[in-house]
Amino acid sequence: MKKSGKLLAMILAGAMALSVTACSGGSTETTAADTSATDSPDAADAAQGSEEGSPEGEGATYTVGICQLVQHDALDAATQGFKDALTEALGDSVVFDEQNAQGDSNTCSTIVNSFVSSGVDLILANATPALQAAQAGTSEIPILGTSVTEYGVALGIEGFDGTVGGNISGTSDLAPLDEQAAMLLELFPEAKKVGLLYCSAEANSQYQVDTVKAALEASGCTCEYYAFSDSNDLSTIVTSAANECDVIYIPTDNTAAANTEIINNVCVPANVPVIAGEEGICAGCGVATLSISYYDLGVTTGEMAAKILTGEADIAEMPIEYAPQFTKKYNKEICESLGIEIPEGYVAIGQ
Prior knowledge:
Blueprint: H1 2-38, H2 41-52, E1 62-68, H3 73-90, E2 94-100, H4 105-118, E3 122-126, H5 128-137, E4 143-148, H6 151-155, E5 168-172, H7 177-187, E6 193-199, H8 203-218, E7 222-228, H9 234-244, E8 247-250, H10 254-257, H11 260-270, E9 274-276, H12 279-285, E10 288-291, H13 294-309, E11 321-322, E12 327-330, H14 332-338, E13 347-348
Parallel strand pairs: 1-2, 1-3, 3-4, 4-5, 5-11, 6-7, 6-8, 8-9, 9-10, 12-13
Antiparallel strand pairs: 10-12
Helix pairs in contact: 3-13, 4-5, 7-8, 9-11
């Protein structure tokens, strides 16, 4: 009986061992099946998408690099309008890296290269040299220009049809140049010689003075170019223009806009009026302008940026947008100093 009992105990122990092994093997197979499902390409992509989120999805954040050529009223207003519009659209999800090149085109390139290295989501190029630097710096990151007069001239596009394509679009500050010429003739009908004062380093300034020159000469005026290379020779060139001309015309020129005090200190004592291409220049040294709101231009650019960042629009298909309206404005203080009477239909700057 003892041997039989021992034999029965051994049989039962073996059966229990087989049962435990079988259970253990079933658990391993289930775990392997779960792991295989998790490691499949589709599952991995879904998990990654859940963790990282889509750039256009809820909770996405964006970094926008702003390269502004120089500090002056017009460009400052455009930048502020851009930031306000984009912040209104995207709230705290947008962060700005705002840098100013202090009037140096080479510094624009350095700024743009830093944006590219840090991988910003979009670049605002405020003024033509900033746009040219951005174009040279990246063909991948979306670029929006603002305060750029003529994109075909700025970017070397022949037969420009209004859409740049690729990774570039933006807004233009181009005012009707023929109407600016007409304004000059309206205020100074007896003017015989008009000086065209502009910075030779700005391609769009050349474009503007060429267009105004053609319009004025068609009306019987004689026009003379007075080009300065930078602020260092501005005083000398302005003095020559004031000594030789009845009226001076200045286009939307960033170097002139940043140095209106130099121009004003020459022209007012010489009793020579200045017609300006935009309000900021007019406020500093001009008597009148047909101008746009640069703040509103910036707002339009910011609205474009929001659509690009959220995937609502493709920048390659976005045409350049223009200011919707233009206003005749005059500088009351300088007009009084020069004894100039402004007809009805003009608004005093600052009102």
